[in-house]
Specification:
Layout: H1 2-18, H2 21-24, H3 29-53, H4 57-86, H5 97-108, H6 121-170
Helix pairs in contact: 1-4, 3-4, 3-6, 4-5, 4-6
Length: about 170
């Protein structure tokens, strides 16, 4: 599970590193962000389903939380890098992909050092959206994933119990 999680995180970071913000700066960044969040929600739905079916649901939930957090940070990092590429004046200083990740993590951690700030209304709305999503991630996503793990554990216990009853019912000596 750990290897799969590390591999997934490495692939996500590699995709982020290869993508160019200037290549995706064309078009409406807001629409792209909403689309990314919908894809994120779809990934979470698939993860919840997988957690309930996994033989080690708690471990799978932890792995899913790491993957989801990484995906969210990279999504917002690319959004900020794209905004800064198209409109450098929207932030207090130029943002490349590295500084966009730094900015994203300072917002996620609610630290907000103030060295990079959103200056335009659009950039501030994106920051606001990230804060709302981050709060949801911390509060709801962890709860949803670990509730799915509990449901998976209950499902496994029920299946094991049913298997035990079937074996006992079929045995003529009992």
């Amino acid at each position: 599970m750990m290897v799969r999680t590390l591999l997934t995180v490495a692939i996500l970071i590699t995709v982020y590193a290869v993508m160019s913000p200037s290549d995706i700066a064309d078009g409406n960044v807001g629409v792209r962000l909403v689309g990314s969040l919908l894809v994120f929600a779809g990934v979470i739905a698939l993860q919840v389903y997988a957690i309930t079916r996994d033989p080690l649901p708690e471990l799978r939930a932890g792995s899913s939380m790491i993957t989801a957090t990484t995906l969210l940070v990279l999504m917002f990092g690319m959004t900020y890098a794209t905004l800064a590429s198209a409109n450098p004046e929207w932030f207090s200083q130029p943002l490349d992909k590295s500084s966009a990740i730094y900015f994203t993590i300072t917002i996620l951690g609610t630290v907000g050092f103030g060295d990079i700030t959103a200056v335009s209304h659009t950039a501030r709305w994106v920051v606001t959206a990230q804060i709302v999503v981050d709060l949801t991630l911390v509060v709801a996503l962890g709860r949803v994933l670990f509730s799915a793990a509990r449901a998976g554990r209950v499902r496994q216990e029920r299946l094991a119990s049913d298997a035990g009853r079937t074996t006992t019912d079929d045995d003529p000596t009992t």
